Amino acid sequence: QKEVEQNSGPLSVPEGAIASLNCTYSDRVSQSFFWYRQYSGKSPELIMSIYSNGDKEDGRFTAQLNKASQYVSLLIRDSQPSDSATYLCAANSGGGADGLTFGKGTHLIIQP
Amino acid sequence: DTAVSQTPKYLVTQMGNDKSIKCEQNLGHDTMYWYKQDSKKFLKIMFSYNNKELIINETVPNRFSPKSPDKAHLNLHINSLELGDSAVYFCASSQGGSQYFGPGTRLLVL
Hints:
With 112 residues, chain A is mostly beta strands. Chain A has strands at 4-5, 11-14, 19-25, 32-38, 45-50, 54-58, 61-66, 71-76, 85-92, 101-102, 106-111. Chain A is globular. With 110 residues, chain B is mainly beta. Helices cover 0% and strands 58% of the residues of chain B. Chain B has no helices and 11 strands. In chain B, the strands form 2 sheets. In chain B, strands 2, 4, 5, 6, 9, 10 and 11 form a 7-stranded mixed β-sheet that branches. In chain B, strands 1-3-8-7 form a 4-stranded antiparallel β-sheet, with no helix packed on it. In chain B, a hairpin with a 4-residue loop joins strand 9 (87-94) and strand 10. Chain B is globular, with a radius of gyration of 13 Å. The interface between A and B is medium-sized, with 21 and 28 residues.
């Protein structure tokens, strides 16, 4: 059974600090990993995708993947109050038509 | 231009009724999906359609039937609605990689 695990939080971070969100996955076949941001009452919005071991940076966001440890993380630098949301980690076994397996999400609160 | 759109946005209905949710994407993607997000906010795949063919069908009751008239549209028909069907249903599309979600349809079964 494919599973993606996240700490549900809430994770509280002061404005301007680095927020660190973590995720582990059970299916070693998983090849693609995604971070989505979901505001309350809204749909998931894609923030980052990562396919290879290492770091991938996009603006204030850095995704990190370690396939040996089956671990994915998202760092948000210079956290802003607008970053307060639920962050969903998702894994895909790599097939083009595969659905994503989502974690239950981490609720992030950025304190002004 | 809305990339992935769904109608209706809200749906309130009685147990036992039949209802449909429509989804359209203008991204030119080959694959479309239906996800269900329950009251605990857990998002789970229901169906995937690739070029109008059903690719996966997770353990979803056969009261749920996806229909794709063309690769830009994926509709979800639900028969004999039950209280437990109350949730937010999201449509998504992809082209072999990242998936993009529609705004969701909030279904409440009374």
